[in-house]
């Protein structure tokens, strides 16, 4: 990292952080995360967490971060589950939804007065056809660590009806854990696209502009006053650069240095660091 940039870093007004692979991996906080956020808070910077992870509610993220000793409020958290619920409630109000996803996603949808038709933990002992397949307006897909055969069978048959919309929270195929990678929300989309022989209609999370624009609006800052910290090039970094936000690529998570060649030069990050801890030491 150039010393120029570390001088410049504290000139930004707003700091957007990805969660998984930047601040933490599952229940382990990553080195430097707490220290950097503490410095930024002392300097009255605007801090937002922008995560494609759809498995938790925003309240659960506030709690998760508090357990790491990081104090943020609910308005500083943007998740793909929350934004999917907000988007669907504004665009297709009062829809009936079939969800491939976890409790956090279902709860966010219900908070926006959307009806989750499968609001229980479906077991493979259930009959896939013993379900109101025809009453569904939208299938919403997020990461689902309890994905079952019966859920896939139901979603596949619901999606045969081309009137049903097919919306994904995010397209991340993999998900970093402290022990390696596991399948992410994008993998669920890929399976369903294959099974239903159709393409997803809409994806909400990064790299789409929606989450970045919501955060800019909430922070009341301009894109050039803002920097995004991300570990996944094709979502965090490409998405940020696409809307004119500066980007810091944090190594050790979803993407590696050699992945840079897979993205266009116009989307290259402004700064690359091995960890937030390195950044803290350079300040
Ligand atoms: Mg990440």
UniProtKB/TrEMBL annotation:
<dbReference type="Pfam" id="PF13242">
    <property type="entry name" value="Hydrolase_like"/>
</dbReference>
<dbReference type="InterPro" id="IPR023214">
    <property type="entry name" value="HAD_sf"/>
</dbReference>
<dbReference type="GO" id="GO:0016791">
    <property type="term" value="F:phosphatase activity"/>
</dbReference>
<dbReference type="Pfam" id="PF13344">
    <property type="entry name" value="Hydrolase_6"/>
</dbReference>
<protein>
    <submittedName>
        <fullName>HAD-IIA family hydrolase</fullName>
    </submittedName>
</protein>
<keyword id="KW-0378">Hydrolase</keyword>
<dbReference type="InterPro" id="IPR006357">
    <property type="entry name" value="HAD-SF_hydro_IIA"/>
</dbReference>
<dbReference type="InterPro" id="IPR036412">
    <property type="entry name" value="HAD-like_sf"/>
</dbReference>
<dbReference type="GO" id="GO:0005737">
    <property type="term" value="C:cytoplasm"/>
</dbReference>
């Amino acid at each position: 990292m150039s010393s120029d940039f570390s001088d410049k870093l504290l000139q930004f007004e707003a700091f957007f952080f990805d969660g998984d692979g930047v601040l933490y991996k599952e229940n382990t906080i990553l080195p430097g995360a707490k220290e950097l956020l503490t410095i930024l808070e002392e300097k009255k910077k605007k801090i937002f967490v922008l995560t494609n992870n759809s498995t938790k509610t925003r309240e659960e993220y506030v709690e998760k971060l508090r357990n790491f000793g990081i104090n943020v409020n609910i308005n500083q958290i943007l998740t793909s589950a929350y934004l999917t619920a907000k988007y669907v409630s504004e665009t297709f109000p009062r829809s009936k939804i079939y969800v491939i996803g976890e409790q956090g996603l279902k709860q966010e949808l219900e908070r926006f007065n959307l009806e989750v038709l499968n609001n229980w933990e479906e077991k493979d002992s259930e009959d896939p056809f013993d379900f109101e397949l025809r009453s569904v307006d939208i299938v919403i897909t997020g990461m689902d660590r309890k994905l079952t055969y019966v859920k896939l069978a139901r979603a596949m048959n619901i999606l045969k009806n081309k009137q049903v919309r097919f919306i994904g929270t995010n397209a991340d195929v993999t998900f970093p854990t402290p022990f390696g990678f596991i399948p992410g929300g994008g993998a669920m989309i890929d399976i369903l696209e294959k099974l239903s022989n159709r393409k997803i209609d809409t994806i909400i999370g990064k790299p789409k502009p929606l989450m970045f624009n919501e955060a800019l609006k909430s922070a009341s800052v301009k894109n050039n006053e803002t920097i995004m910290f991300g570990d996944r090039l094709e979502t965090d970094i490409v998405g940020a650069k696409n809307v004119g936000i500066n980007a810091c690529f944090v190594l050790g998570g979803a993407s590696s240095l050699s992945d840079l060649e897979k993205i266009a030069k116009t989307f290259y990050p402004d700064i690359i660091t091995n960890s937030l801890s390195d950044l803290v030491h350079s300040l």
